[in-house]
Amino acid sequence: MARWEPGARERLVLAAVDLFVEQGYDATTVAQIAERAGVTKSTFFRHFPDKRELLVAGQETLSRLLVEGIAGAPAEASPLQAVGAGLVRASSAMGPANRELGPRLKAAVASSAELQERDALKSVSLAAAMTNALLARGVSGATAALAGELGVLAFKRGYAAWSEGDRDDEDDLGRHALAALDELRAASASLG
Amino acid sequence: MARWEPGARERLVLAAVDLFVEQGYDATTVAQIAERAGVTKSTFFRHFPDKRELLVAGQETLSRLLVEGIAGAPAEASPLQAVGAGLVRASSAMGPANRELGPRLKAAVASSAELQERDALKSVSLAAAMTNALLARGVSGATAALAGELGVLAFKRGYAAWSEGDRDDEDDLGRHALAALDELRAASASLG
């Protein structure tokens, strides 16, 4: 198995998340993040304008990929099939650094009210982005809203299964996200 | 028709939301909120410990009522019927002040990044509360997560229809929330 070596950008994100857990988001400085990642402050600023953007950057990429996947799904795809295409497209950009990040980010979010708010806004924004991409395909309002929420739930549940799973397997996130989407579709039959 | 007169607490919330729209959340002081509401600062502090809690207080009540309604639904109720019971219970506590608040709160949230984060956390927290209440009824993980999201969507969509609707009618929020829940249930059949 090829050994995975994170680049400077990935090291910065991992270092930041660990420091947020250890000492809190507010108390963590850019200098500390750079030092922990083994890079200079200038390297930090080549990748991110500030500490906050370090968390937001990934969200914008994720949102764009989900929307592109939904928009690019075949015209005859059902709303959930389009969401599945979005999940596959977004997952294709997620590598070992993202898998590594999962449990650490969860711990950081649990420890900070500010990060909980950011994380909540991320969920709501991703659902809104998927809903809008579905509306653009002509899906009706209630169905688009529901499918957008299902997409976020599937992404979160798939991501948790992937990042908490056995690291030695070569699974990609896409398989887990699609499995979670299938599980949620099946669950929708038992809502009553 | 009886004329509705808001009490000090309602006037404080409405004044605060309007000031947040006009001049931003950060720039708004407790003194300004009290003055706009026509009460003293001491009256403000009898109702709320600070500016932030003025927004959070309503969320905790709402969450508690949703959970109580779900927990109190008959044992044979389906997951969505239990969510419907939660929506009805929470709606019963919503009067003219809440109806009045809807469009203004929406404008305040649209104008402030901080309020967007708070509002997102509110949605995520309400979904988690309903999901946990359903898990406690023995509903399986995926179904409970999905039903919790449906509950939040139904509440939001019902609240929007209610607060944007004709104020002269005597409609209560519960009817709108249940109609939205029905619409979402129907939509789940067209997810594909």
UniProtKB/TrEMBL annotation, chains A, B:
HTH tetR-type domain span: 6-66
SUPFAM superfamilies xref list: Homeodomain-like
Lyase keyword on record: no
GO molecular function, one term: DNA-binding transcription factor activity
Keywords associated with the record: DNA-binding, Transcription, Transcription regulation
Superkingdom per UniProt: Bacteria
Positions of the DNA-binding region: 29-48
Protein's UniProt keywords contain Coiled coil: no
InterPro entries membership: Homeodomain-like_sf, HTH-type_TetR-like_transc_reg, HTH_TetR
UniProt name for this protein: TetR family transcriptional regulator
Pfam hit, one: TetR_N
